[in-house]
Every structure is written in structure tokens, then in C-alpha cells.
Recover the amino acids of this structure.
């Protein structure tokens, strides 16, 4: 009966339901915990260091990840799957206790350090979850079940954000939120153990090779043309989306200033109300897409359909903005783009790793999903600086720039998907 209910959201077959539900729950808990920490990081960094320090966070994360990825690869080559995933969770739990002590003790720059850490935690832990999922499932079963598992991410995000808001409104301290996130992360780690006992496949084998030389994930990424194409499209994805957020933010600030000049509302109140409603609808639409559409896209159009949808949505959205779309339409275009990213593309990018080796699933995926993704933020910052300081681009100018980047993204997807089909011809 359970698997029949789950078939509303994914192509789950007999004997697969229990593990799929555990995986969905585990991802849900991870995202709830992350959004509690993500909500907490804003007041911590603003109170302890001011808004200026946030500008350096992406660069600090990128440099830190350059050391994290080889260290993770070193561990993956020497320990079993379960020890690797639970070990990383244990390290993050220890970090949270240190942050709790630092917050209570008033440690200097604790907000900035925590801001950098949250970015690394989110990228590394989510990448590891999907590495684990790719290790559990074959290409055929992954294409059927990943859309269902990914519901945990789209549902966990708004729940975590709302829970953090409620606790803050009730007077909870940052230390309390850190301990709540620690408890959730502890259950998340325990669920890995439960799932591993159920499946057991290759559980005791290391997920890399000790004999491998070089900086692990970076070495694998440099030596595999398929993985390089994966890195390219994720870099372009992040570049387009982050630049798009700048475009929207610029228009929102202009609208807020006009509203404040007209009287009756402050700029900060206008911006807060806008983004509250904006994020609400992004998450609601993303959950609906993930629950009822993504599995059908993958079933009928395959991985290619999931991977190509977001660049096509982005291309159309920024073409409309470049042509002069008004504020109301721009808002819904960006809502559609982000909802598609959080649902369809999030599933598609995980499916791309199904035909890779175990070593690539863990080590190279960490390099791509952490360092490469964060590098997209750095490139976007450089693009915004050059566009404003040197080229004098307005909203429409940046929109047309994103149209060009989206076209490049679509073109890069062609050789990527060709390589994917070739690899799938030889994978289980």
C-alpha cells in the first residue's frame, strides 16, 4: 500500500518504499537544520561584524574549500562509506558546539566565521547526501526514485525557515537554535546508520583509492571531460542565478525608495515584506513542482529533460526582463526560475552523477558541488562590479548579459548530455 501512495510522487516499486522514505526523511532533516542555521547566521554576522564582512564571505568559503576538498578525498580513500558520511556529520556537530561556546562567550568575529562555515556546511553535507544516494541506487532506479527523495529538500527548506522565525519571535537565543540544529543533525547522522544497515551494498569498502595521487576530487575533475562539463554547467547556473538575484534586488530597492518617498512605509519594511512573500511563493511552487511534475519529466524526457528545463526558463525570463518587463512580471519570472532550480534542476544535477564511479561520486562531487558552485558566486560578483563600475549597465543590460550566459549554458549542456548517454550505455 505504501509504495502505491508513493507512486503519486515517483516511480517507486515493491521493496523500495522503506529505503526511499528514510532517504527522503534524512534529506528533509538536513534541510530543516540548514535553514535554522542559515536564518541564524544573518543576525550573528550583522551584529558581530557589520554588513561589510558579508562581502568577503564567498571568497573566504572558496579558499577554505580548496583545503577541504583534498582532505575529504583523503578520508574517502581510507574509510568505508558509513564512516565517511557519519564522520563528516560528527565533525559538523563538534563545530556547532564550538560555535555555541563562542556565541555565549562573545568570541570576536564569531558571526563572520559562522557565516563562512554555514556556507561550507550546506554545500558539503548536501553534496555528501547525494553522493551517498548515487552510491545506493543504479542509474535506472535513481532516475525513478531521486524525484521522490528530493521532496525532502524542497519541503525541509520552508519548514526550517519558519521554525527559526517562530523561535526568534518567541525569544530564543542563538545558542538555543544552535543546540536545536545539533539535535536535528544528530538524528540525520543516525539515519545514515539505519539506511546502511538496510542496504549494506559495498558498505565496508572505501569510496576512493589510496593509491590515487594529487588533490583527490580536483584531480578527478581535471582528468575527466564529462566531469568538466558538469562543472561548467553548474558554474554557469550559479553565475546566471546569482546575477539574476542582483537584478531583482536592484529593482526592489528602487521600488522601496519610491514607496518610502511617497510616504506610509519605510524602505526596510517594503523590502522585508517583498522578500518574505517572494521566498514563500518560490518554496510553495518548488514543492508542488517536485512532488507532482519532476518525476513525470524524468519519466518522459529523461535526465536531459530535467537538465535542460532551467536554462530554457532562465533564457526566457531574462529575455522578457531585457525587453522591459515591469516589476510585477519580473518578480514572477524570477519566482519561476528559482522554483525550477530548487526542484527540477536540483534533481537533474544529481542524476548526472549516476553513471560515474564511486570515487567520482564522493570525491569529485565534493569538488564540483562546493568549490565550483562557490566560484560561481565569485565570478558573479566580478561581473556585477565590471558591469556597474566600468560598463554602466542598467537592469536591462544585465538581463541581456544573462541571456547570453543562458545560451552558453544551453550549448554546454549538449556535449554534457551526449557524454551522459555514452556513460549510461555502460552503467547498470
Amino acid at each position: 500500500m505504501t509504495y502505491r501512495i508513493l507512486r503519486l510522487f515517483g516511480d517507486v516499486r515493491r521493496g523500495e518504499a522503506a529505503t526511499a522514505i528514510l532517504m527522503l526523511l534524512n534529506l528533509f532533516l538536513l534541510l530543516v537544520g540548514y535553514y535554522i542555521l542559515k536564518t541564524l547566521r544573518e543576525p550573528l554576522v550583522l551584529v558581530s561584524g557589520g554588513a561589510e564582512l558579508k562581502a568577503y564571505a564567498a571568497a573566504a568559503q572558496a579558499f577554505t574549500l580548496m583545503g577541504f576538498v583534498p582532505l575529504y578525498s583523503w578520508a574517502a580513500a581510507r574509510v568505508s562509506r558509513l564512516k565517511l558520511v557519519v564522520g563528516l556529520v560528527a565533525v559538523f556537530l563538534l563545530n556547532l558546539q564550538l560555535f555555541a561556546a563562542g556565541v555565549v562567550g562573545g568570541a570576536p568575529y564569531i558571526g563572520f566565521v559562522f557565516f563562512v562555515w554555514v556556507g561550507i556546511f550546506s554545500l558539503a553535507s548536501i553534496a555528501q547526501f547525494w553522493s551517498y544516494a548515487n552510491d545506493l541506487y543504479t542509474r535506472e532506479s535513481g532516475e525513478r526514485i531521486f524525484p521522490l527523495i528530493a521532496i525532502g529538500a524542497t519541503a525541509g527548506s520552508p519548514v526550517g525557515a519558519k521554525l527559526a522565525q517562530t523561535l526568534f519571535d518567541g525569544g530564543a537565543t542563538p545558542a538555543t537554535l544552535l543546540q536545536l540544529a545539533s539535535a536535528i543533525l544528530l538524528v540525520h547522522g543516525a539515519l545514515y546508520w539505519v539506511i546502511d544497515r538496510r542496504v549494506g551494498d559495498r558498505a565496508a569498502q572505501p569510496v576512493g583509492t589510496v593509491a590515487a595521487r594529487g588533490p583527490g576530487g580536483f584531480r578527478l575533475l581535471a582528468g575527466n571531460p564529462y566531469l568538466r562539463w558538469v562543472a561548467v554547467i553548474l558554474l554557469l547556473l550559479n553565475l546566471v542565478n546569482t546575477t539574476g538575484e542582483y537584478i531583482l534586488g536592484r529593482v526592489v530597492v528602487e521600488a522601496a525608495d519610491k514607496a518610502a518617498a511617497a510616504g506610509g512605509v519605510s524602505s526596510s519594511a517594503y523590502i522585508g515584506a517583498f522578500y518574505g512573500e517572494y521566498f514563500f511563493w518560490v518554496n510553495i511552487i518548488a514543492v508542488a513542482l517536485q512532488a507532482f511534475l519532476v518525476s513525470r519529466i524524468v519519466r518522459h524526457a529523461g535526465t536531459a529533460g530535467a537538465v535542460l528545463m532551467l536554462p530554457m526558463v532562465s533564457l526566457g525570463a531574462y529575455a522578457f526582463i531585457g525587453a522591459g518587463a515591469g516589476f510585477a512580471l519580473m518578480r514572477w519570472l524570477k519566482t519561476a526560475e528559482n522554483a525550477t532550480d530548487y526542484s527540477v534542476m536540483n534533481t537533474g544535477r544529481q542524476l548526472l552523477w549516476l553513471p560515474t564511479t564511486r570515487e567520482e561520486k564522493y570525491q569529485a562531487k565534493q569538488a564540483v558541488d562546493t568549490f565550483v558552485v562557490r566560484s560561481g558566486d565569485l565570478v558573479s560578483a566580478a561581473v556585477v562590479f565590471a558591469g556597474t563600475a566600468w560598463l554602466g549597465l542598467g537592469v536591462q543590460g544585465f538581463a541581456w548579459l544573462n541571456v547570453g550566459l543562458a545560451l552558453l549554458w544551453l550549448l554546454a549542456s549538449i556535449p554534457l548530455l551526449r557524454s551522459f548517454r555514452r556513460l549510461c550505455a555502460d552503467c547498470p
